[in-house]
Amino acid sequence: MQKPIYIIGVGAIGMTLAVLLKQASKEVILIRGRQDSRPETQDARITLDFIDGITLEATVPISTLDQFMVLDGFILLTTKAYGNPELAQRLIGKTGKSPIVLLQNGLRIEEPFIDADFPEVYRCVLLATSQVQAPYSVRYKPVAASPIGVIRGHESSLAELIEQLNTAQFPFRMEEAIQRAVWEKVISNCVFNAVCPLLGVDNGIFHRNALALALAREIIDECLAVANEVGIMLNRMDVENRLLQISQRSDGQLISTLVDINQGHPTEIESLNLAVARLAQRLGKPNLANRTRLLGELIQLKSALSQVP
Prior knowledge:
By secondary structure, the protein is of the alpha/beta class. The chain contains 11 helices and 11 strands.
């Protein structure tokens, strides 16, 4: 019997996955990450526009977490990671043995779920870009197969999980060295999620502008130095090439942090630049992340100013 896929987070990635999985004949339920005054359950017709002009649509039920006593299936988290401590507490007693997959950005974002003793926790490093265009309308572009690895659980369960989630338009793959992949993505995010919002530009700036790329290289070097201190050894050119690949393939798209600031919402910068800076501080080497920390603090300030009534 096919188990349902619960996607917590009705944002760009959550809606993208919902449409593609629904198109693949999966049972999909979107769950709002926060409590609000909207109807407890509703059906939404979601439109997914690909960069190449193809459009897909699917009708997906959207509900609230309070409507479920038990989430018996596969649980995907596509909410912003700053909400994980609260979300982990709300999920206690609801998930049973269901695997939880974090499709989120940031360092150590899985800790609230480990601390709460959830039995199966997996991390996904998203290698795709998507952007909400209008209510229930998303623009999407895949970059590469997104790796998923075990934080707590079993590789056999992970293989089943990937089989359930995999689609041609949003592929996933198993990754044994998931923390290496996490750091690679975090470093890219420390560049995109700081520089693009401060300049007010799209993701393509780094392959278009030499000065922006030079700044990106400084951030990459700092983050690599911190990663090395905790035993994560990455190839500098591989990281830069991946950043340029993302920049080229998401040319014209806005990074989520810029969208959040424009809409007066909190950002993920605490789990990105500022998390790298805190780690450097704990290691007794705060100067390793000076530029990374400064850019993170500027984003933090810009975000706070955007939320002032």
